[in-house]
Amino acid sequence: GRVDDHDAKIPGRYRRMLSMLAGAVAVVLLLVCVNLSNLLLSRASARRREMAVRSALGAGRSRLVRQLLTESVLLSGCGAVLGIALAHLVTRSVAASRAFAVARLESVTVDGTALLFALGTAVVTGLVFGVLPALQVSSVRAHEPLTDSSRGSSETRARTWTREVLVVAEVALACLLVVGAGLLLRSVATLLDEDLGFRPEQAAAWRIEVGRDGEIEERRAFYERLVEKVRATPGVDSAALTDTLPLGRNRSWAAQAEGEIYADGEAPEVFPRIVSPGYLETMEIELIAGRLLSAHDGPDGPQAMVVNATMAERLWPGRDPLGRVASLGGNAGLQVVGVVNDVRHSSVEERAGLEAYLPMAQRGDWGSMELVVRSRLPLETLVPRVRGAIREVDPSLPTAEFRSLESIVDRAVSPRRFLLLLVGSFALTALLLAALGIYGVVSYSVSRRTQEIGIRMALGESPAEVRRRFVRKSLRLALIGVGVGTLCSLGFSRLMSSLLFGIGPMDPLTYGLVILALTLTAAVAAYLPARRASRTDPALVLSSA
Question: Helices 48-56 and 12-46, interaxial angle, to 10°?
């Protein structure tokens, strides 16, 4: 897909995500190509007699190569057509979804350029990865397959070695993607466990738009009536106002502690939050020292503010901040009455900056406010009650749109979840392709060695020994692939370290689980055809030899 607006700028933090997704797509494409090549090699070996007959009837090698390449391109082209149809459906559903807050996601489409690229890639894939099987089968001399004993004949070591190398490559590529998905999964899980500084559960917010028109006293009185009405609503535990919610918009003011001298441009930047009494309690932001803002912090009282722990340490390191005075954005004489826990206002990933909570009764530079309501009632019960309370105060206020604080947090982490969803899908696809590759190689080996298996069993080899022999060989190939893939993953994970949170790019738990998952997948994929081999009837095989 692509973005419709050619002039659109992609924010820097999304460029790393797109680069990683492009790399993951390339790995999946390479994995599909390796699987396709392995499939064509197996089909080519099975068609050696057919090619020999064609050659004996006068078909030249170039003609045989062209025929096999045409079949390969048709095969990859059919896959491309199916993939384009699926991509169109998936792209439309993802672009229409509001579950992910990813820049310009809604404008992503599958256009002509994307279609041409996909079809061109399919043609190139069919040609490049169909060359090796075509050259191998077309190089067979006419008399060789015609003199072989059909199914029981063993293959040359070169052909067997080629298929085994391709299986190792498939497992290594799958390991690369599964490690990436595992690191992202661990990162998202760690991120969701982070302390946000407030409790988003059982809370919702309504944006109250009244503008800045009218006298400040009138607006202040209106908001006080609104909060009182909502607080009196049955089922509401608490309600309060703020000019901005966590993980939303931000503005900053320069701060100066009283008695301190700062050089030009060196005064610390503080995020101001204009709130009503009860906001910190409603958000369940922990009080560390002093007191919270109250109704006594009115327009005629001393200028008060509550600061977070980071601001207290930054402006008054090693000293008690209570009672200290500072100026914010040119507003002098603000006295610290309390210190609260840090809240992640900018993003879930970023540590808290300097924050100050100012009573709205002492400020006049606010218009629209967020009404935060906490209740143990389910949203479907709470929302109609709060809407009714708001309409009683002012029937003209819009009340249809509200947000739960949990949805705000979910939206803040949605870019990571979106990346995890895509890379995880690629990883599962890679795991499935690797399993199919192992299954195909073992299954083909069983079909080609039926006579050998029958003879071994006639000489005393048990069915369990037959299964163990095939599974053991497959596990050896898988472990080699896991080893190669792990080494490649160490370099790849360093490139994605900027997308990780709370874990390192060489997280041992992730690597251990990936190795275990790939080993088990290889064992299951090999066991199915190995079980079929162990059910071979020696008498039937020997009688048909």
Answer: 60
221-277 pLDDT tens trace: 888 999 999 999 999 999 999 988 998 777 888 898 988 888 877 889 999 999 999
Q: Which of 222, 226, 200 is nearest to 211 (CA)?
A: 222
Q: Are 69 and 127 in contact (CB under 8 A)?
A: yes
359 exposed, middle or buried (CB, 10 Å; 0-12, 13-18, 19+)? buried
Cα–Cα distance between 285 and 238 in angstroms, integer? 13
Burial of 331 (0-12, 13-18, 19+ CB in 10 A): middle
Beta carbons within 8 Å of 80's beta carbon, 6+ residues apart: 118, 119, 121, 122
174: Cα within 13 Å, side-chain hemisphere: 32
481 and 170 Cβ atoms separated by less than 8 Å = yes
| Across 1-10, 165-174, 466-475, least confident range | 1-10
Q: Do residues 519 and 482 make contact, with C-beta atoms less than 8 angstroms apart? A: yes
Strands 369-375 and 287-290 come out as unpaired
* pTM (2 d.p.): 0.71
Residue 61 — pLDDT band, cuts 50, 70, 90? confident
Q: Could you tell me where the beta strands, DSSP code E, fall in 152-208?
A: 203-208
Token reading at 337: 């009455």
